[in-house]
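Objective 1.3, modelling of assemblies. Example input:
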Amino acid sequence: MSPIDHFWAVIPAGGAGTRLWPLSRSSVPKFLHDLTGSGRTLLQGTVDRLSTVAEDRFLVVTGRPHRDAVLGQLPGVAPERVLAEPSPRDSMAAIGLAAAVLEREDPEAVMGSFAADHVIPDPEVFADCVRIAADVARDDWLVTLGIEPAFPSSAFGYVHLGDPLAGHPGAFAVREFVEKPSVRTAAEYLATGDYRWNAGMFIVRPTVLLDLLGRWHPAFAASLRAIAADPSRLDDLWTDLPRIALDHAVAEPAADAGRVVCVPSAFRWEDIGDFDALAGLVGDAGRPTVLGDDDLVRAIDASGLVVPAAGRLVAVIGLDDVVVVDTPDALLVTTRARAQDVKQVVQRLKESGRAELT
Amino acid sequence: MSPIDHFWAVIPAGGAGTRLWPLSRSSVPKFLHDLTGSGRTLLQGTVDRLSTVAEDRFLVVTGRPHRDAVLGQLPGVAPERVLAEPSPRDSMAAIGLAAAVLEREDPEAVMGSFAADHVIPDPEVFADCVRIAADVARDDWLVTLGIEPAFPSSAFGYVHLGDPLAGHPGAFAVREFVEKPSVRTAAEYLATGDYRWNAGMFIVRPTVLLDLLGRWHPAFAASLRAIAADPSRLDDLWTDLPRIALDHAVAEPAADAGRVVCVPSAFRWEDIGDFDALAGLVGDAGRPTVLGDDDLVRAIDASGLVVPAAGRLVAVIGLDDVVVVDTPDALLVTTRARAQDVKQVVQRLKESGRAELT
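Predicted structure (tokens):
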């Protein structure tokens, strides 16, 4: 497995992960946690996975409050490679800033953007897909990896594949990106064989990305390039950048314009959005999954997920699909079915003056 | 409400309360806890309730490891009034020792024995019953208070009432004590109107109790009297005392011999044996009962019992009749229906070398 020439891995490391409270906090968001019990945080796992293709060519874009933690977790990444956003401005600003920096630094760069909080258990298959995508991107396409759907999910957007791309085996034109469908519609998508999950992974030349952005949002692209040319203007220009996802700002209109290609991918992929997903990821039949020190958990007639992150003993009796997350200052007890509602607790804590716990 | 002349309150303070783990521990058993959120521990509540009839005439019998804690909780009780058992020997030895001490100290004594871990929300009604019972006891009866059954419980033994006792309005002969029945049998008992819950409360002259004991267990009674005569023999003689409950050693055979009287009582009485009972005692519809600081609990669509005894925030979502007990070094999550099985966890902890948590 050789690295890809001039390939840069861009990692937007943002998002609070409120549905993973109390493990994920605004001060220590989910990408800084080892949520899979692998011994590596999600951010570290993302860097590990990309090292085979990017070597040491990384750009991490994160919030200012998290920059030190990111640097602490990534001793192999130089401090100047961790860009700090003055405030959250969604994915287009984060990834666009990285593109503008790379455009100046390496004219031959191909960048791939991968969120810091995804889990991909098949790193070799993933690397092969990135390699194909990078080849395609050098021909000035905006390339996305399309995940083989494991089930008709209503939680993800989909990529609708068109014809094979000439000269690039394994790559297909993208007809359109479609928003999160109903489960029924998702099942229809799966039946056609022409739809893939949109995991928000984009491989593209920095200049191509910024030029596409400039086509629909010229001031946005100009601001990003101005910041890259003179980093002292970051605070000044950042405030006015639109809060918009890369999907909406560039990918969707570019697909309509026939500029997007998809590399359908067979690797497993998990977006750990809540404790139900986490329980499913590391699930174990007959007893609760333990994320952390198994010896701290005593379970009788129980299943679900137990996170003994406070180092205390946790005993669970007679509860199926329960979720118990034990941290030093806050405890969550719920069920897998109600995992989505965890964000309500976070909201209530903020409203009741306990924001320090969120 | 005047005190009862020469009435001594004997409080056997023993029992681990393993079904109330992790709140109750072998080092700090349940009678040392404020389980009702009243601001007083069960032991303190017991003493408070009896002060109106006993003034300062108390004898507490507890395990050696708990003597200091008992004294600390009861500043009004003199150190020589707290007897320490060298080892647990069940209720006959504990109450019998108190009887032997009182027999020497106060020839006119009437003693009443009341467990340290019961809850009686109607102290005035209780005191009235004790007053009647003490009057009867002066005529050399063994008197028990019979609780009006609130429902056909299979968790308690029953007292079967006979004819009214001449000269003592409100007192009845006891035909027999019956063991914990099935719910069906308990319902039949209730239908007759002649059965009461046996709460293990006995009022008796010390000499009468020891003489009754001597009738069926002469060596036992002799040992207790020998210890009272020479306290230096305590360790030596205690080891060989039988492990037997007062009910079996004295009350049941004495009932068969026609020596027991019951004062049927209308006060509410709770034996907080497990978290289901505790949830029922302080229950609140529509949201979980909180034992402790209500502000530490955030509940959404939940009911049951939450004990935030570690000072941490506890969030519960989407669980009915759940039991969450949060302590600094151990956490329990179960349901009211499985509250009995908490003792299994305690057993497993001992077996797995974590006895320090039990």
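Residues 90-105 of chain B form the longest helix (16 residues).
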